[in-house]
Amino acid sequence: MNNQKKHIYSISVIVPVYNEIKLLEKSISKIHTFISGNFKDYEIIIVESGSTDGSDKICNILTAQSSHIKIIHEGKRNGFGSALKIGYKTASKELVWSITVDLPFPVETIFKALPLFSEYDCVLSYRANTRKSIFRNFQSFVFNELVKKALRLKVKHVNSAFKVFKREVIQSLPIMSDGWFIDSEILYWITHKKIPYVEIPVELIERTDGKSSITLLTPLGMLKELLHFIKNVKKTL
Fold first, then answer.
1. How high is the pLDDT of residue 125?
2. What's this model's pTM, rounded to 2 decimal places?
3. Taking Cα atoms as reference points, which of 87, 74, 111 lies closest to residue 182?
4. Residue 6: inside a domain, yes or no?
5. What is the mean pLDDT of the chain?
6. Which of 65, 76, 119, 229 has its CA 20 to 30 A from that of 219?
7. CATH number of the domain that 118 lies in?
């Protein structure tokens, strides 16, 4: 029996999935073991987006193993942002935390975030390490600086992986993006609405198995989304 003291916050963990059969079962098991051991009230919401490698079937098997694991089949691949929006909308607990299947940061990072919710509504992150290639680092730097300037953001990093929100906050944002630009858009709305947030340093873990859906063309798609967002956000203000 686990006698470890569990946190008072309830938490929804959103896991977007597309063609992750090599990592899926192991990652969900790790997430579930960690969350169930540290939170009394929780749910894991898997948003599966039309996988073609059998991930959809594995998701169904996983949800049958625990009443705390829920599956939403999006039906087709509409983009990372689309999957996250579905998860955010479905979440029912106090805190909402998104984690990708490649587990790009230690799950224990949540312990750094929890005490901060007495003062802030969102806990975001910036990379404490840079293990990418020189080209990838340069690419990331250029995109980050461009987005921060275009959207007048004062954050350290616009798309770092670790982020946790109070549920009522993330569900109140009029998020438009269906793609990878969603992180930048969320930061824009948080800043625009003057929602209190804090950034913490997080050590990132490089993917060692499976295949990332991020390609060399991804930044171009994000820039296209940025221009589309700037054009359309003016209509909402």
1. 93
2. 0.86
3. 87
4. no
5. 88
6. 76
7. 3.90.550.10
What total of structural domains would you count in the chain? Answer: 1
In this prediction, residue 150 carries a pLDDT of 86
In a domain, 4, yes or no: no
Per-residue pLDDT reduced to its tens digit, 187-221? 999 999 999 999 999 988 875 665 555 555 566 77
Asked whether residue 3 is assigned to any structural domain, the reply reads no
pLDDT per residue over 25-65, tens digit each? 999 999 999 999 999 999 999 999 999 999 999 999 999 98
Q: Write the DSSP string, the chain.
A: ------BSS-EEEEEEESS-TTTHHHHHHHHHHHHHHHBSSEEEEEEE---SSSHHHHHHHHHTT-TTEEEEE-SS---HHHHHHHHHHH--SSEEEE--TT--S-GGGHHHHGGGGGT-SEEEEEES---S-HHHHHHHHHHHHHHHHHHT---S-SS-S--EEEHHHHTTS-----STTHHHHHHHHHHHTT--EEEEEE------SS--S--TTHHHHHHHHHHHHHHHHHHH-
Tokens of 58: 């594995």
* 56 is a domain residue: yes
Non-local (6+) Cβ contacts of 16 within 8 A are: 47, 49, 80, 83, 84, 87, 98, 100, 101
Averaged pLDDT, 148-177: 91
**Which structural domain range is residue 202 located in?**
11-236
